[in-house]
Amino acid sequence: WAVYAPYVAAINRLKRERNAVILAHNYQTPDIFHCVADIVGDSLKLARDATRVDAEIIIQCGVHFMAETSKLLNPEKTVLIPDSRAGCSLSDSITGADVRLLKQRYPGVPVVTYVNTSADVKAETDICCTSSNVLQVVESLASDTVLCIPDEYLAMNVARQTNKKILTWKGHCEVHERFGAEELLAYKAAYPGLEIVGHPECHPDVIAVCDFAGSTAGMIDYVKDKRPPRVLLVTECSMASNVAAEVEGVDFIKPCNLCPHMKRITLPKILDSLLTMTDEVTIDPAVADRARLAVERMIALKA
Ligand code: 13P
Ligand code: SF4
């Protein structure tokens, strides 16, 4: 704590002086999540809460597509990300040009794009979704066939819950694709009473052995409400650390996988970001106007 304390104090002071607010994803490390963040949550909550920010400056502690979403929803505000190299394997898997080709191949089929994409990709999209509302978004569309891109596993998981035909793309989350069903079943056998709670970016075979699957916020709520004696969170490692600090009597069993992109964000970089007002997120206004529509259509769906 002695290492963190000076950074925490300096960040919280500078945040007030600059009229800045810190939005942090559930995968941020506990020092960021518990000590400097003003708003925490899953991708959907962060997007919704970004529409209600009063502060002049948003510091996005998460990955680049999250900062872009905040900028789309706050074009007049300064949006900073402490390390603009914080990417995402899903976001990197597809470009706006790829989506244009898909639309040529499947004319008239609505395009649902996961928020884990660049603004260029969102601009080619009818509506965005997150892991917490993908079924609701797919069901809201009149068409019997829906393009749900770029996460192949998220699409396969939602295809099991809807009668619609789901077309997809070969994007994967490099964190969640590493989990396997056999490995999890071995943990279940070794730890009596273990509950397995997974994220829908995992392969459907993994989701099939989970006691519950949902967005990061859904996973946290499940643990807080149900308080299983032992739980394995099939997701990024900081989730278990963050929830463990808030619930007593739950034994968090590893394994977990680290997201190298999320881990680029650190307290020293947040302080530097506030001191130097970098890295600023900018989006071509012509792209932003179209991408914003897709995000706003998602947010307009009732929770
Ligand atoms: P959610 O927080 O929306 O579940 O997303 C998980 C994720 O991988 C974000 O990068
Ligand atoms: Fe992307 Fe997966 Fe990292 Fe989330 S956890 S930012 S989906 S690579």
TrEMBL record:
<feature type="binding site">
    <location>
        <position position="131"/>
    </location>
    <ligand>
        <name>iminosuccinate</name>
    </ligand>
</feature>
<feature type="binding site">
    <location>
        <position position="173"/>
    </location>
    <ligand>
        <name>[4Fe-4S] cluster</name>
    </ligand>
</feature>
<keyword id="KW-0479">Metal-binding</keyword>
<feature type="binding site">
    <location>
        <position position="216"/>
    </location>
    <ligand>
        <name>iminosuccinate</name>
    </ligand>
</feature>
<feature type="binding site">
    <location>
        <begin position="114"/>
        <end position="116"/>
    </location>
    <ligand>
        <name>iminosuccinate</name>
    </ligand>
</feature>
<keyword id="KW-0408">Iron</keyword>
<feature type="binding site">
    <location>
        <position position="88"/>
    </location>
    <ligand>
        <name>[4Fe-4S] cluster</name>
    </ligand>
</feature>
<comment type="similarity">
    <text>Belongs to the quinolinate synthase family. Type 2 subfamily.</text>
</comment>
<feature type="binding site">
    <location>
        <position position="259"/>
    </location>
    <ligand>
        <name>[4Fe-4S] cluster</name>
    </ligand>
</feature>
<feature type="binding site">
    <location>
        <position position="25"/>
    </location>
    <ligand>
        <name>iminosuccinate</name>
    </ligand>
</feature>
<feature type="binding site">
    <location>
        <begin position="199"/>
        <end position="201"/>
    </location>
    <ligand>
        <name>iminosuccinate</name>
    </ligand>
</feature>
<keyword id="KW-0411">Iron-sulfur</keyword>
<keyword id="KW-0963">Cytoplasm</keyword>
<keyword id="KW-0808">Transferase</keyword>
<protein>
    <recommendedName>
        <fullName>Quinolinate synthase</fullName>
        <ecNumber>2.5.1.72</ecNumber>
    </recommendedName>
</protein>
<keyword id="KW-0662">Pyridine nucleotide biosynthesis</keyword>
<comment type="pathway">
    <text>Cofactor biosynthesis; NAD(+) biosynthesis; quinolinate from iminoaspartate: step 1/1.</text>
</comment>
<comment type="function">
    <text>Catalyzes the condensation of iminoaspartate with dihydroxyacetone phosphate to form quinolinate.</text>
</comment>
<feature type="binding site">
    <location>
        <position position="43"/>
    </location>
    <ligand>
        <name>iminosuccinate</name>
    </ligand>
</feature>
<keyword id="KW-0004">4Fe-4S</keyword>
